[in-house]
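Anyone? Bumping this.
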Amino acid sequence: MSIRPSRRLALAALAAGALVLSACSAGSLGTSDEEGTTTVSYLVDNEASTVKTAEALVSAFNAKNSSIQVKIETRPQGGEGDNIVKTRLATGDMADVFGYNSGSLFQALKPEQNLTPLDDQPYVGDLDPAFKVTVTAGGKLYGAPNGAAMGGGILYNKAVYTKLGLQVPKTWADFMANNAKIKAAGVAPVVQAYQDTWTSQVIVLADYHNVAADQPDFAEKFTANQAKFATTPAALRSFQRLQDVHDAKYLNKDFASAKLEQGLKLLADGKGAHFPMLTFTVATLAANSPDKIDDIGFFALPGDDAAKNGLTVWEPGGLYVPKSTTGAKLDAARQFITFVVSKEGCDIMAGASTPSGPFVVKGCDLPDTVPAAIKDMQPYFDSKATSPALEFLSPVKGPTLEQITVEVGSGIRKAADGAALYDQDVKKQAQQLGLSGW
Amino acid sequence: MTALDVRQEHGGRTSVAAARPRRVRSPYSYWFYLPAAVVYGALFLAPTFASFYFSLTRWTIFEHEFIGLDNFVQFFQEPALIKGFVNTLIYAVVTSGLKIVLGLLLAVLLTSQIVARGYLRSVVFFPVLVSTIGVGLTFTVLMHPDEGLINKSLALVGIDGPAWLTDPSYALLSVALVDVWKGVGLATLIYIAGIVSIPGEYFEAARVDGAGRLAVFRAIVLPLARPATVTVIILSLIGGLRSFDLVWAMTRGGPGFTSDVIASVIYKQYQAGFYGLSTAGNVVLFLVVTAIVIPLYGFLNRKEVDQ
């Protein structure tokens, strides 16, 4: 269903108009090259630690290469950022290197049409196969890892655990039993911060290792419209767990109005014992409560079977080169990416901000100085008890999950109803992607 | 506008209709209209018709596929939409109603002989001039359940204030109240203009007849300020139906879907990359606003003429 050139042109003009209207200047596109210097633009999102990491990488790279200058551009995060990336790709106006999600969001960029494959690059053999899958489309690899993997599970306060003599739970029943004891001791057992709505999804998403342990082919069937959250007991349980912690009154009092940083502070100060979270927030914790960071540990979201206990992993985002970058710029862009995934690049990234987990490049090890919560992830990797999150196995992810989980997690909607609503939501996404069977 | 004026205007309209056949030739050539027509056509007409077409397609930014009315079917099956639809109507009626009542009362107050009248008029109008997003963010802080100024003040007098924006049963109304605070100045201004234009003779005559303040308000101000009421209703109802910025700044439709309005549902579809679906939503919103406002406008104006 490709469209005729004239129409594409009109569409491009429309999109360009939208770009001007939304006042996002294309910035430096690196057109003029002075005396053999190639300028490469590098687009990253404007999250503070992303920018800091990018700046550290770029200044090290520019210092080493006199003939290539990399310039950073920033874009908003979230849905607005998605639209800017898509618009700039569609108009052939994309930066020479850009950072963007891997997995389902990567697939929505139509990689075959818009991106340059990186299959032939020297570092490809060193990449973790689990990561490679998430940046591959039509049998070709389009992305290099931008940063470290991260885990989804429970950040917990070890001081509270020591004081109450608790053990890290391996099953959901143990977890709820711990919660009962913690509540009796006057500490909020589970911290939630629904004012930052995305945080409400973590229990459901991080439970995917448990879903996969029960139904190994769930992702495949889910993509093919053969398995549903509402009708697959293991998947429905993810929503049920979110409802259970609310119904048992285990949440912090201000769960509805708290923001992520407030939630992290409750946890660091020992006013909350558990926080279902992604490990990239450990960097924020370390920055905001440096004296308490040693109190914070991490464990995978417990499931039903202690023997199958394991961690749900988010693969790092990718670095991509658009088709519109050619010639000397393309070579320079590839050199920059090669630098980022080198041992030196990893060390610079680990030094610029706290890594969210292990790197997915062979030879890149975590420094010993990383916080305990990050070290707690390593055993899961060593024993190979990890699963990628569903969004890396299936391109289907419904956009309103975070609103649904806020409702389920605040007692506005029941788990079964929420799961059914989510099934309807993913249908739209699947149709938009043009998947067969929907 | 007096009843007499209305009748004259009514009579005048018939004479214009009679005069239509021998219309005076415009002194300007049609070419003079071209620049305006090009701008209007390129920026308004073309996108409007393009949106009707794109509402019938499933499009990413890269390509599109014609799918007929599927987007509309999908949009009406959207569970958030039903909620958003009801919320929009509640929001429009609540804000519009409160703006009329409060605007009229404030206008009566601010047209009477009180001290610092000019100053008070500007104070009432001031919130209209402030950026909506700024107002939204400020009130989000003020309405914080534990640390907000509102609940802290209520606590001083022993009232345990609700969680204004995070309690599903209050969120929408809290936003509506802020909208009223922000928009009542405009309604007041329109009413002041309406009341001031009522000829002084009526008030004098009423006073001679021994009418009290309440009777003057009911028999003179209320009926003769009708054009102002019509304007306020139309403006605030349209504003309420397509309200988005304040809702987005304060709750983003949350918690969950509980304060979603049609415009925020559409925006979320757009954000999620469902461009065809959100275009269909905008077409629906356009039709709904038109379907409510045009008959209402006709109805309100007819009432005015009938008097």
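Late reply, but here is one note on the structure posted above: Residues 242 and 286 of chain B are 9 Å apart (CA to CA).
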